[in-house]
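Input structure tokens:
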């Protein structure tokens, strides 16, 4: 049974020309005008890629630091010991620990948005992989969250690093800012995210790489982008 659309949502849909494919700048200007919620909505990008994630060489996964940040306050938990734990605290980590942090997570205390781990603590982190993995919280060297340079990792995450991973159907979804950002700030962030995806195009991916891309707000319908204008963004 189809979900009944609200009058508000239908009104927003009427502002979008569904016969048109928009450029990045056109789409962002339109999306900003779709604000209807009482909170500061997130500007979200959804992409469908022409890859088969069942093949390891077509698993698109990584991260990028957005120039203007995401507008989200990110709580960072760091698995580290000794001097590296002290370094993590000095860099602004919200939670730092090792065995004690593992115990807290096993007990269901997950008061953070992202994790960082030094390589020597990954044996510990592996004990809670079944808890962190399904929540998308497992540290991974591909997005820079398994590293001896905890200061850089924490600063990137606090500054607006976006981690992404394609799902089994080839979809990638991320927040690229808030609706109260300027059009210019959102354009820069959007192009940086799209460029990061383009740079990861696998050589084994045949045919069209970006099948579709949509921009929306948390509570708005989507605006479809012209994918032919996206392929040259690096």
């Amino acid at each position: 049974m189809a979900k009944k659309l609200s009058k508000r949502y239908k009104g927003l849909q009427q502002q979008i020309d569904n016969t048109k494919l928009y450029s990045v700048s056109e789409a962002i200007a339109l999306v900003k005008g779709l604000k209807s919620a009482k909170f500061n909505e997130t500007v979200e990008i959804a992409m469908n890629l022409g890859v088969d994630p069942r093949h390891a060489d077509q698993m698109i996964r990584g991260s990028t630091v957005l120039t203007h940040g995401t507008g989200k306050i990110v709580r960072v938990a760091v698995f580290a010991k000794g001097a590296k734990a002290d370094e993590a605290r000095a860099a602004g980590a919200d939670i730092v620990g090792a065995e004690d942090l593992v115990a807290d997570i096993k007990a269901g205390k997950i008061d953070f948005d992202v994790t960082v781990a030094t390589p020597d603590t990954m044996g510990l982190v592996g004990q809670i992989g079944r808890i962190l993995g399904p929540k998308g919280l497992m540290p991974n060297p591909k997005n820079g969250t398994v590293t001896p340079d905890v200061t850089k990792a924490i600063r990137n995450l606090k500054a607006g690093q976006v981690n992404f991973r394609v799902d089994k159907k080839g979809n990638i979804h991320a927040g690229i800012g808030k609706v109260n950002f300027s059009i210019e700030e959102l354009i820069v962030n959007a192009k940086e995210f799209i460029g990061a995806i383009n740079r990861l195009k696998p050589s084994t991916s045949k045919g069209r790489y970006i099948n579709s891309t949509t921009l929306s707000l948390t509570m708005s319908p989507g605006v479809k982008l012209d994918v032919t204008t996206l392929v040259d963004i690096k």
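The radius of gyration is 19 Å. The chain is about 30% helix and 20% strand.
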